Each structure stands twice: as structure tokens, then as C-alpha cells.
Amino acid sequence: MVDYSFLLEELKRILKEKQLKFTRQRELVLKALFENEGHFSPEELHRLIQKKNPDTRVGIATIYRTLTLLEEEGLADSISFGKEGKRYEIGLKKHHDHLICTHCGKIIEFFDETIEKRQEEVARRFDFQMTDHAMKIIGICKECREREAGNQTNTQENH
Ligand SMILES: [Zn+2]
Ligand SMILES: [Zn+2]
User: Fold this and answer.
1) How far is the CA of 62 from the centre of ligand 2 (A)?
2) Cα of 148 to ligand 1 centre, how many Å?
């Protein structure tokens, strides 16, 4: 795992390079991603930040802009949910892919050596220089399926 002081130095360096001011608000976005395990929408991060720092006003626009900057610079990663937007996690983690539940929104991380190798092979086959990949498995998690199976039985019993 990356340590926070490294990420913070990186953020300072990037902001300086872009001639943007280092602000507590911007730092809080990075910190929230670092401290909370998971994948968050900008709105969720906003809530987490305001809950933990009730005395600092952080505008949602700042959160969006900072996340975009962090992602451009590799300090954050995102998973795209089409028109529902993106969910962010801290960057520089060990590479992994995701299983996404469309019912409850749960995101499970996995790493599979064979999938990684196959993707490299596919890229080679098309003489394609791969710089990144995003592998998403979309579906319904075990808990949601069990809950829904339970609901069905209950409905039947009621009739
Ligand atoms: Zn689920
Ligand atoms: Zn992840």
C-alpha cells in the first residue's frame, strides 16, 4: 500500500506544476480517497468529507475538479457507470479488476493472472500497444440473489 505522505507530496508537486494553489479542500479529497476503502461517487465522497470535517466547506465542484485532476495524474482511478457517472478509488494500488452488482451497487475487486495474460495476448494479436485496461464483470451478487429468492418464497407463502 502507498503511504499518505507520498501521495500528499505528489499532490503538492502536481498543483505547483499546474500553477494551482494547494488548499485544504483539495487535500481533503485525496485524504478521503486514501482513508476510505472502496469506490465512491463524488457525492459520496462529499458526504464523507463533510461528515468528518464539519468546519470546512468543500464545494461539490471542487470535489469533481480535484477528482479529475487526481485521475489525470494517476493518484486516483475510476470505474465508469455510463450515465450514472464514475466511482473513484485511490490510485497506485496493485492492479485489479472489478465485479459490479447492478442491484445493490457493491463492487468486488479481483485479480486473475490468466485474464491479465489473455488481454496482453489479444493486444499483441492486433498489434495493439496496450497502455491500460478496465475489466468489469456486471451482474447480481450472492447476497442480492439470496435476498430476492427469499422475497419470492415469502410472497408465495402469503398467497
Ligand atoms: Zn448486490
Ligand atoms: Zn478497485
Assistant:
1) 23
2) 10
Domain that holds residue 120: 94-142
Within a domain: 147: no
* Burial (CB count within 10 angstroms: exposed 0-12, middle 13-18, buried 19+), residue 36: middle
Tell how far the Cα of 28 is from the centroid of ligand 1, in angstroms. 29
- Global model pTM greater than 0.90: no
What is the 152 CA–ligand 1 centroid distance (Å)? 16
- Ligand found nearest the CA of 101: 1
Counting ligands in written order, the one closest to the CA of 108 is: 2
Q: Is residue 154 part of a domain?
A: no
- Averaged pLDDT in 10-residue chunks for the chain of 159 residues: 89 96 96 94 96 95 96 93 89 91 93 96 97 92 94 65
Query: CA-CA distance, 144 to 96, in Å (whole number)?
Result: 23
- Report the pLDDT value the prediction gives residue 159, as an integer from 0 to 100: 53
Q: How far apart, in whole angstroms, are the C-alpha atoms of residue 151 and residue 137?
A: 25
